[in-house]
């Protein structure tokens, strides 16, 4: 293989480049990204960066030990891929030949179209978004956060700590209802309430008041009106796959992949937030939109792309994420959607720390902890071992 092209220059793309070099790939390596910035860490954008405790230079993901010898093409997006010519077409009119291709184009935040152009509305994804939001946050100001997922909750926590009056709106019955389930989502709701942040679940937005190019109030369907200085929209993300629609690569909720990141087109793998990998334990394709997935899974996909013995590929670990909110660290590993019941192994609702295990029958399939790092690590290892055993049985 003479050339490897990676489209996407964030964590997943950088991890893929590192994996290629560590596995002995010595050919031409091209990394394409639409963000003009070199790869940077996104989780701090809603926390330390927003709070002003760190700056852009502190977000850099590249290290002095990286020896990628890569060609970087930044600030222009890929607009199509021709499988016959193996050419990636870029927005600036240039093309890049890609005998082997890694798709790592991530995802873009969902927006509220009726207010997306307002001066004081932010959907946090890039460092540019975070810089805009940091300028809008001020002590004594009012913020409405639409969506109580990870981004929304972390922004609410940071803004509250900086002296803002914050209201969080969530359409579901509880925060994080999808990844954690309703039972534990209700427990997480207590974090907002204990901090003094207003959380409104089951909220439907009826309208907005706009004043001089900004949103000055959010109107709820039940008649409540929330005056605001800033609106943060955190209602999930959609995979960046439109540029692949004419390529013939199978698409669904992301790029459809096998269990090691291979796509329907030979010589093409997908990693990161845009990639829907086959999950043997659940029998479905699933996008893992978390830092650890973008850091770990590219090594598996690159190994498969370079023709490594499947037996030598790293194990694909269950999803893991963490979130820092109101001085509490939440950690989760596994798949809550498979659970039939939840058991508290330590603490419980209303306590300063807890650890809850999700079970499918007698098998633990997920674990949630806050302020229980050591106990969580032990349970996480158990769940990873069980998931690896299940995957081996399914493959056999």
Short description:
The chain is 23% helix and 32% strand. It is α/β, with parallel strands linked by helices.
Describe the protein:
The chain is an alpha/beta fold and 396 residues long. The protein is built from seven helices and 27 strands. The strands form seven sheets. A five-stranded parallel sheet has the order 3-2-1-7-20, with helices on one face. It has a five-stranded parallel sheet with strand order 9-16-10-11-12, with helices on one face. It has a five-stranded antiparallel sheet with strand order 23-24-27-26-25, with helices on both faces.
Please outline the major beta sheet.
5 strands, parallel
> What shape does the CA trace take?
globular
Structural class: alpha/beta
Average pLDDT score: 94
**Strand proportion:** 25-35%
Secondary structure tally, helices: 7
Based on CA atoms alone, the radius of gyration comes out at 22 Å
DSSP strand count: 27
Taking pLDDT < 50 over at least 5 consecutive residues as the criterion, the unreliable ranges are none
**Percent range of helical residues:** 10-25%
Distance between the termini: 30 Å
Main sheet: strand order: 3-2-1-7-20
């Amino acid at each position: 293989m003479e050339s490897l092209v990676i489209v996407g220059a964030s964590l997943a793309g950088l991890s893929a480049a590192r994996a290629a070099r560590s596995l002995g790939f010595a050919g031409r390596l091209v990394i394409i990204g639409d963000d003009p910035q070199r790869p940077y860490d996104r989780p701090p954008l809603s926390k330390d960066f927003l709070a002003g405790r760190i700056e852009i230079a502190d977000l850099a993901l590249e290290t002095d030990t990286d020896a990628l010898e890569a060609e970087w093409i930044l600030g222009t997006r890929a607009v199509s891929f021709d499988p016959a010519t193996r050419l990636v077409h870029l927005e600036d009119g240039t093309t890049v030949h890609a005998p082997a291709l890694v798709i790592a184009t991530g995802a873009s935040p969902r927006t509220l179209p009726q207010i997306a152009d307002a001066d004081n509305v932010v959907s946090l994804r890039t460092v540019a978004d975070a810089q805009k939001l940091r300028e809008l946050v001020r002590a004594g100001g009012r913020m409405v956060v639409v969506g109580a997922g990870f981004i929304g909750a972390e922004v609410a926590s940071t803004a509250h700590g900086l002296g803002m009056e914050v209201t969080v709106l969530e359409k579901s019955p509880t925060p994080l209802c999808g990844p954690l389930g309703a039972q534990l989502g209700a427990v997480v709701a207590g974090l907002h309430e204990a901090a003094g942040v207003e959380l409104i679940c089951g909220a439907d937005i009826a309208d907005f008041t706009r004043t001089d190019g900004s949103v000055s109030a959010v109107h709820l369907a039940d008649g409540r009106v929330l005056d605001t200085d800033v609106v943060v929209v955190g209602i999930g993300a959609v995979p960046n796959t439109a540029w692949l629609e004419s390529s013939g690569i199978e698409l669904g909720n992301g790029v459809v992949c096998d269990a090691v990141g291979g796509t329907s087109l030979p010589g093409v793998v997908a990693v990161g937030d845009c990639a829907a990998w086959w999950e043997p334990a659940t029998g479905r394709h699933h996008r893992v939109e978390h830092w650890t997935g973008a850091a770990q899974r590219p090594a598996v996909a690159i190994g498969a792309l370079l023709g490594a013995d499947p037996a030598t590929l790293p194990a694909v670990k269950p999803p893991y994420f963490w979130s820092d909110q109101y001085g509490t660290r939440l950690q989760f590993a596994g798949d809550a959607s498979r659970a039939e019941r939840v058991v508290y192994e330590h603490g419980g609702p209303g306590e300063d720390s807890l650890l809850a295990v999700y079970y499918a029958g007698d098998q633990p399939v997920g674990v949630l902890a806050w302020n229980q790092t050591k106990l969580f690590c032990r349970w996480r290892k158990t769940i990873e071992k069980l998931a690896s055993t299940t995957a081996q049985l399914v493959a056999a």
